[in-house]
Amino acid sequence: IVQYQDPTDTTRGPSPIIWGDCPWLEIQAQAGQGQGGYSFFDDFVNVPKRLTNVADTAVQNGPYQQFLSDGSRIIPSAEEGGAVFLDSSASNEAAIMKLGGGAFNLATLSKKLWFEARVKFGTIANDQNGVFLGLYENVAMTATVPLTATGTLAPEVAVGFYKFEEDGDGLDLVHCDGTTATTLKADATTLVADTYYKLGMVFENDVITFYNDGAAYSDTLSVGATEYPDAATVSPVIAILGEATEATGVTMDWWRVAQLG
Question: Quick one: pLDDT at residue 59?
């Protein structure tokens, strides 16, 4: 349950402006709006751990499909309340977590969806790493999916937030219709290193609104029949792709997603 308070909320918990009208308990009980829905939350108290020196492989680890390039890491972060840390070990090497199975849909006329995650970026220097956080088509993760070696989104259905490796302190709002990746708003937020941000989205009436710490961005995305094909289900994804050897990575405190059924 999310209590109402100041919408611009930088505390640790979920943002009331996003979750205040989400029938979270009813969805879990399959009673929301008379039809239930789908939901997932992870506070990373028990991190699905992958160690270094794993050859390029994707495996199912608990609820997640994880991909690691050789030497990249997905490990617990020693923070109160739990967190997960992802980093890349060298150029074009990736660490990726995707919730297994595409339970969610952004196609036109789909029902309301809520998404939010609390993350911080270890470096905002240029030419270090690229990070994508958001909803991504339910396809296999690889060293070039969802982020390609050229620093763009791979051509799959996607929407979310992107820290471009060439512009380390800029956070962009991005989406892809399955063919063409588009930047909806470049440098939507100027990032500060090692500072948590709560990044969220709400899909309602074929419009996606983006949020940072409970404040809505003015740029929204209208979803038509061509943006997101009905058959292309999506899942929460966080991915980091290195451009240089670094160990500052990205830390995620929690994420949650829900959609009416």
Answer: 76
